[in-house]
Amino acid sequence: MSELPTVAGSSRDREIVEAKVIVTCPGRNFVTLKIVTRSGITGLGDATLNGRELAVAAYLQEHIVPNLIGKDAGRIEDTWQFFYRGAYWRRGPVTMTAIAAVDVALWDIVAKLAGLPLYQMLGGRSREGALVYAHANGRDIAETSDEVRRYIEMGFRAVRAQCAVPGLAKTYGIASGGKAYEPAETQLPLETLWSTPKYLEIVPKLFEQLRVDHGNDVELLHDGHHRMTPIEAARLARSLEPYRLFWLEDATPAENQKAFEVIRQHSVTPLAVGEVFNSIWDCKHLIENQLIDYIRTTIVHAGGITHVRRLADFASLYQVRTGFHGATDLSPVCMGAALHFDTWVPNFGIQEWMHHAKETDEVFPHDYQFRDGRLHCGESPGHGVSIDEKLAAKYPYSPKQLPIARLEDGSMWDW
Ligand code: KDG
Ligand code: MG
């Protein structure tokens, strides 16, 4: 191919000469792909798949890195197609997370070469900042309400609220021992007990009290963590209608997408789903049948900016808006890329933001900043997130997995 010099350098300057997989645990585990071009520009992509980190690290190391060396970093689309179509084995969380890491790192490089913030490469700014929601949780309704107040006082306009379920020893998403809650806490999965009848008793009472305590201005959200059957989810969605939720998330496991028709038939509470989806094919039926209002599929777990842009454009045809997953197990690199995407995407809804630990923020210095209830992605070229590799090396990988749920009779239950 001819050497056409451009503002962004020649294809020789853009040649990938190094690709490195960095695994680190500053507060929790993260996998990061760093790509370096001949001209010395570096790009970073998040490759973290909570509890299955080393599967993606090995996929990258063994199957992707050897194919990257010598490629032109400017050929983002072709590289995406190479790894997606070329692998024969399409989709799935491990593959799509690995492809996402490459894709985000390449977008980072190309934006740096152009000297532009990444959102500018996507089509420019559509809004001043990305509305974010924080996580409030508590051991009872009063404590959860205090937490909601604390976030409102910090300037948040949207808060997700989760409350411990009376009669259950431990509820996922509720902090223990005064620490912030962390999705994956133990080396082997912690076995917890679950009761949907008990859960369905407390949740409407929680939101009734939150509206009494905080009025109607704040947006309130809730996550069902895929634990209900379709008719239980419909009952909850209907019972929450007076409290005007921004969304009810992951009401049922989403393999059975017909379930959303049942919920829709009974309720006008907006529905969000998709943090475990990996491709546009997982979302297609729900979106084109208008069974959901927000799609949560993220850049890191669904093939990167290149694929999620396609998904968001498709969703826009049906007035479905984005609401990207942003728990602590998605690294600051993913958050930086997501915020540039959020700054551009026309059908933006909201962005989740669970604060990372101090050590995580130190290993991944970033441009994004919180102001007036929104996150602002920053203006430096690329996605605005870097890595301190020396510091990262001080935090070796420490295996951790998500808890599992069993019913009170011992049967395994859904996430
Ligand atoms: O890895 C799983 C967590 O990210 C997830 O359980 C958190 O549901 C979650 C959320 O909405 O942030
Ligand atoms: Mg969730």
What does this structure look like?
There is one protein chain. With 415 residues, this protein is α/β, with parallel strands linked by helices. Helices cover 36% and strands 18% of the residues. It has 13 helices and 15 strands. Strands 4-5-7-8-9-10-11-12 form an eight-stranded parallel barrel, surrounded by four helices. β11, α11 and β12 form a beta-alpha-beta unit. α5 crosses α6 and α7 runs parallel beside α8. The radius of gyration is 21 Å and the shape is globular. The N terminus is likely disordered. The site of 2-keto-3-deoxygluconate has 10 residues, from loops. GO terms for molecular function: mannonate dehydratase activity.
